Amino acid sequence: MDLEITRALSIPESELKWRFSRSSGPGGQHVNTSDSRVELSWSVPGSRVLSDHQRERLLDRLESKLIAGVITVTASEQRSQLRNREIALQKLAQKVAAALVPDGPSRRATKPTKGSKRRRLAAKSRRSETKAQRKRPSAD
What we know:
Layout: E1 3-4, E2 10-11, E3 16-21, E4 37-43, H1 52-61, E5 66-67, E6 70-75, H2 81-100, H3 114-134
Antiparallel strand pairs: 1-2, 3-4, 4-6, 5-6
């Protein structure tokens, strides 16, 4: 069962690494005996399904979340390991999909209008007059 990120991108199960450990939190005595905490890891540089452009984009955008090029997500919200596995898959898919979203249009630089310059300078001079009126008259 592959992890589908987008219609065009699906991570094969063979590239995903699972680790299980005991989870803290609710569960009573059950929590001491079952490995319900899930860690899901995926190596971005080692992936065969990514294009060079996608790989560069993921490495750049997920830089703070990667350790040696590997992204790891954990899930221990549920008592069931199966549910935690599903949550971990969703978390990984969301992070990768968000990082692959193309940039929006960049801001086009514009000049201030003549009217806005005039208003800014008028407000500036009014402020200056207000502050000048607060000063003590000089005794020259």
